[in-house]
Amino acid sequence: MAIVTAPDRPMFIDGGPAEAAGGGWIEVRSPATGALAGRVPAGTAADVDRAVAAAVRSFRAGAWSRALLADRSAVLLRLADLIETSADDLARLEVAQTGSTYKLRRDSDLPFTIDNLRFFATAVRHLEGKAAAEYSGSHTSMIRREPLGVVGQVSPWNYPLWMAIWKIGPALAAGNSVVLKPASATPLTTIRLAELAHEAGVPAGVLNVVTGPGEVVGTRLAEHPDVALISLTGDTETGRRIMTAAAGTLKRVHLELGGKAPVVVFADADLEAAARGATAGALINAGQDCTAATRVYVERRAYEPLVARLAHLFRAVRVGDPLAPDTDMGSLISDAQVERVDGFVRRAEADGATVVAGGERAVVPGLEAGAFYRPTLVTGAVQSSELVQREVFGPVLAVLPFDTADEAIEAANDTAYGLASSVWTTNVFTAMDVARRLDFGHVLVNDHLMVASEMPHGGFKQSGFGKDMSMYSFDEYTRVKHVMIELSGEAEKPWHYTIFGDKPE
After folding, report:
1. Which one of 256, 299, 391, 476 is the catalytic residue?
2. Is 256 part of the annotated catalytic residue set?
3. Annotation says 290 is catalytic
4. Model pLDDT for residues 184-225, shown as the tens digit of each residue
5. What does pTM read for this prediction?
6. Which of 50, 164, 223, 393 has a beta carbon 3.0–4.6 Å from 245's, enabling a disulfide?
7. DSSP letters of 328-385?
8. Which domains does the chain have, with CATH numbers?
9. Residue of 94, 290, 391, 476 marked catalytic
10. pLDDT above 60 (res 418)
């Protein structure tokens, strides 16, 4: 595996590169090789303040916030074209910092990223509001959709470029200025995104990227009085800290947090489709996905054949060099993540569960230092166990049997999370009933993981609140203003007597 990267990549503030006020740098290393992928500035609270000040100036200047929708749309469409032109370089840079496979980034992430941005660029021209009408009888009321101002955003390490687009797409399309903090492990493509946005015509100060530790940069963004909204995609504990930091200024908060997605398989389902769907759903991005399949509940009479098929598929997944065309799964994000995942598996075994496939670190020839872990299938875990209840964020799938639909739904909903789920059956009545009763923001029938730009993505319970993608995402990044226009032109109104004397006869 050989990826050539530029060693130092400054932050992007007010239309150009910027180093950290403190002069520090953070190394970004490939988790697959241990090699240096690049360095980024160790941003400080002062750097956040500088970026927010630039964003405030750009918003007030109005070159972007008051631009015609058609003009903003055209710039974002140019950005989508630039991303498409640079797709191979971006995919390789994404592989360098994440250790995930090239085919995942190049053939899946990048096309979705480009499509998402093109959707946001055009959808903003169709925002809805109440029709103008005379609700009082003497005034015409209308609704204005306006940008919030400066928004702070924190993106995750598992899909660095794609999730950055989910954030900046609707925010910029709506006319906001943005200060974005990428994950410290994977900031390289986000900085490149800001450079491409500037090249596409996004004015200086409208999109700023500040790198650095979350407890410094993310916290300052969340508490900053000039930031109107803070949006985070990350783990649930970080979401709690962001909400606490944001409370002091009563700013809006948008959170897309962890998940523990159930896969409910009935005996009448196409078991081959279910097995393949659960395998792909569990192992996408090495299981480092909030919507990844983590728990399969299968009707008891189909339990043994489904487990056998899952085990075969898990063992067939090829772990190796992320750039090799015959690699199916690359590395995890770090050695610490490998240890975390393995800890879940070892504790599950100690509690009586059985590892049917995997369950150990994978050693890849030539990449012995890489953070690789084998696809792992576990049976015999109980519903109350941490393997079933907590987010592992690795290539681990637990399989549990059920006897009735009510039992399956109760178990599937028995989690603190509520992001994604799926139900597998050939019975349309079962599918509709289970989809209605599953307490998750996204329910798929006979598939898992699929999303569409036109449809919302977001969870319930401790998976957060608010929506990414679709027209619903603009609810996060716009405010609704009621404008009321008096029609009569009369100086004295019938209700004025409550201030100016007796009621007219």
Report:
1. 256
2. yes
3. yes
4. 999 999 999 999 999 999 999 999 999 999 999 999 999 999
5. 0.96
6. 223
7. SB---S-HHHHHHHHHHHHHHHHTT-EEEE--SB--BTTBTTS--B--EEEES--TTS
8. 11-27+37-257+463-483 (3.40.605.10), 261-445 (3.40.309.10)
9. 290
10. yes
